[in-house]
Specification:
The protein is of the alpha+beta class. The protein has one domain (19-58, 88-289): Protocatechuate 3,4-Dioxygenase, subunit A (Sandwich). 15% of the residues lie in helices and 20% in strands. The chain is built from six helices and nine strands; from the N terminus they run αααββββββαβααββ. The chain has helices at residues 19-28, 33-39, 42-47, 213-216, 232-239, 245-252, and strands at 130-139, 145-146, 151-155, 177-181, 187-193, 204-210, 222-229, 273-277, 281-289. It is globular. The termini are close together. 51% of the residues are buried. Residues 2-54 and 57-71 have low confidence and may be disordered.
Length: 290
Amino acid sequence: MTTSDQPHADHPHPDHDRGLEFDVATLLGRRRALGLLGGVGLAAFAGCSGTGTSNPGTTGATTGTSTGTPTSPTATGSGSTVSTEIPDETGGPFPGDGSNGVNVLDDSGIVRSDLTSSFGTSTTRAEGVPLTVNLTVTDSANGYAAMPGAAVYLWHCDRDGNYSMYSRGVEDENYLRGVQPTSDDGTATFTTIFPAAYSGRWPHIHFEVYRSTDEATSSGQIVKTSQLALPQAVCEAVYATPGYEQSVANLAGTSLSSDIVFRDDGAVHQLATVTGDVTSGYTANLTIGV
């Protein structure tokens, strides 16, 4: 198990709507910078955020019930076993972990499996197609054995492409964020909704891995920051349902091979295996090495 060098010191609250440009700048500081620069310049990446709709922070919260057709494809991604460490990725401009202003990790109630509603001063529910995420954590320093007792902090945008705590209209919400300990088989399970596709990014879910729940909730050291990618066929089925209309064009405008995070290897170690349908919901499974 390796530990990434990511301090959790509180910072002055900056302009949070930095979007794709911020993701690019952060990503260029990581291990894959040379590969990215070899293919295309920073200006070309930054230009991606100037088109499309549903950038994080541009719309307010939307409520309602998602419906759809009962049939839907399933898709397979990374297998249930791993033999390589998952890539380190940017946490993006909306982490909510204290590294970019607000910090939800020290709030009472953050340790929870159901992420669909805000907690604390609000109970607003994020509407969308149901999604269960099973993230199984393994230790690369121990033959990729399961890591019981670790903790996963998971967060993602809502079906409008907004991130709670940051985007306009949902600054006072904290839905779609939560921490779960890993079980005896190393799995942390979350109940949430399927995220939107916003301009310039492939549909994804952010996560941080900590050594324990105590570490996660006390600004402890992050073991791994990465992202889970969602399969195209499932995304297309979900985005055909009411409430996700703006995601259709955004998904069509990007691909795993062009996404600034997943483009170098097509998310081969980050693409979840997803089963289910739009009526009963989906289950996404991903096993990762840290």
